[in-house]
Amino acid sequence: MSTALKIALLQLMPGPDLNAQICIGEAACRQSAALGADIALFPEMWSCGYQFPQDPAALRSLAVPADGPYVAHFADLARELNMAIGITLLEDHRSGVRNTLVLLDRHGAPVLTYAKVHTCAFGDERVLTPGDAFYTVDLDTVKGAVRTGAMICYDREFPESARVLMLQGAELILVPNACPMELNRLSQLRARAFENMAAIATCNYPAGQPDCNGRSTLMDGMAWLHERERDMCVLEAPGEPGIYLAELDLEALRTYRAQEAFGDAYRRPSKYGILLEKEPIEPFVRADRLPR
Question: Which of 18, 111, 143, 266 lies at a 20 to 30 A Cα distance from 72?
Answer without folding.
Answer: 143
